[in-house]
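Exam review. A common question shows you a sequence with its structure tokens and asks you to describe the fold in words. Practice with the pair below. Do the first one on your own.
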Amino acid sequence: MLEVVGNAIVGGMEACVVRLVERLPRDRFTVTVMCPFESRVTDQLRSLDVEVLITPMPEDPPWSSILMACALVKAGAIDVLHAHMANAHLLAGLAGRLCNKPVVTTIHSRSVSPLDVEVHRAAGTHVSVVCKHSYFHALSMGVNAAQLSCVPNGVDTEVFKPAQGGDADLRRHFGMADSAPLIGFVGRLSVEKGPEVFLRSVLLMRGAMPSARFVVVGDGPMRQQLVQFIERFGLADCTYLAGLREDMPAVYRQLDAVVSTSNTEGLPLALMEAMASGLPIIATRVGGVPDLVEQGSTGWLVGPRDFEAVASQVTRLFEVPGVAQQMGRQARMRALERFSIGDSVERTAELLERLAATASGMGQAPRSSIGALVSGTSRKPGNGVARSQTKNGA
């Protein structure tokens, strides 16, 4: 299998790729990865003992990149190409068409881009999305239903889980009491994630919740803008920009709730990790977020950019003792029941094997009902979704 990855920043898409490569069964898959540049992500991939090659991936790929992809397919006996992001989809679609190999792209965002649709139509690629919103958007854009799948992301609930003790560096930073609420924003500091909306809500929450403290975990192009906002409005005593963290399970264990103020999302890993860690969620009602957060049970949903509603719901969460903890327990149960990393990887593995089998004339990829595809529940034999009939490596 050739994974064609359109970016290599520290982000949700890249984390999904790393987790997939790490967990694909080695007796069924041999993986090679193409990325556009070197980064911490390529280091992580190589640490998994997979070959990683670098080639430019603009949306008008140079002939040298197309040649490299084709050479990899032929020299590496690649059975199927798996792309992530539209630029990677284009490169993989061209190589797959030239080499007569099946291609699948995973759409990690809430919508399918026009470029993805063009490549799908021209090269006959398969499209896989991660949430109901993306599934129906793809259909509305003209993606062939027979070449469309929905495979939700998953989270490792043994890594991300509630736990007592451990380092409490974030709380020490503020010198805060264990009983005081620590509210977190986790995500890339970029426009689509709306971190400035979170800070606007902090302006309101610090008055209503004087003992609460707020931490922003992540990095990105808006960092300096957020620093200036904190300085301008005097939030430094209650707000901390923690930057990128390698120890996210330990970070979640220090928090009492997680806020997401994204303007657009697919099925965000940060929220899945937070829920698996036993945290209630206050999030914007965008993309696949409603698939995760059960209103009034595991958290609350608000409108995009509505910082007043964010502040109101976070304050409401801590008004009555025990409410946040109860919602956190329900969030953990929902993650256990609905968002297994093992199920997500196995469903992706089966899709890749079916495509490889179809290309080699061993059968056709079965179609499934929309309900089964987008339910987000674990699949069992006989529940309406056919399982792979081949064990050939892909």
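Now try the second one, then compare your answer with the model answer below.
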Amino acid sequence: MSRDLLTLKELSGKEINDIIDFGIKIKKNPEKYSTSLKDKSLAMIFQKTSTRTRISFEVGMTQLGGHAVYLDWRTTQFVMADIKDEAKVVSRYTDCIMARVLKHADLLEMAKGSEVPVINGLCEKYHPCQTLADLMTIKEHKGKLNGLKLAYFGIGNNVSNTLSLGCIRTGMRFTLCVPEMDPLSIDNELLDELKVSGLYDEEKDPKKAIKRADIVYTDTWVNMEVFLDPKFEEEKKRRIKLLMPYQINKKLLEGSDALVMHDLPAHRGYEIDDYAITCPKSIIFDQAENRLHSQKAALLTLIK
């Protein structure tokens, strides 16, 4: 297995399944692992805001007997120094680095400098930690991954990138139902792998996409860091108008037994309505909880 977790490309289908199964095992018997990372430390570097990523990693390290150090990018020398140099220094103090950054290129520089594993807590192209939690949640509810069908609605982005890859590598069919991709997240190499897998397709009609889906999934249409930015207001309005037909809502879900997923935070009334979030088929908050357990599994796998 790769030393780092940066894109999910580093993991084979078996390795993804191993982490998922490990996460389920840890969730069922957390006390067994309560000292597994005793005297180990995790550096958590945040360039972007966070709720789930910060809490799940920090609490996860605590529950494993270790310690997490929170670093706001703006209050460190990462803002002005060579990223590789700073990462090398941080790695001399800690056993693992988790970073949530604006640019994947910066994360790659961090990984080059670091002497310990680096985990991508989210960047503009990928969100591997979210995908591990998503697949763990699906397996908990469905008992398997292989052969299931997931339909993703809204805009193609960092979340759909890693989720599509995680699905095809574990034998799931992934349908992308979007009118466009977020330009920042486009990865042509990933798209090539998806297209030759035989498990990936694109469908513009939401009614057709949901027809045979076991799971439906959506994410924010506008990146969190610009959702309230006045300079992004015109683009936000354009996206809302374009994407409203792709909202997961009560009408779309009529007649479907599909589980409903969203990685949160949700903008209610935009990509998803209140009914879809709270309906009996929603497993959204199980997803959120499983960030803790799947990330504990990833930490225990990476930290030696």
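Model answer, second protein: Residues 228 and 236 are 9 Å apart (CA to CA). Residues 130-287 form a domain with the Rossmann fold fold (CATH 3.40.50.1370). Full marks require stating both points clearly.
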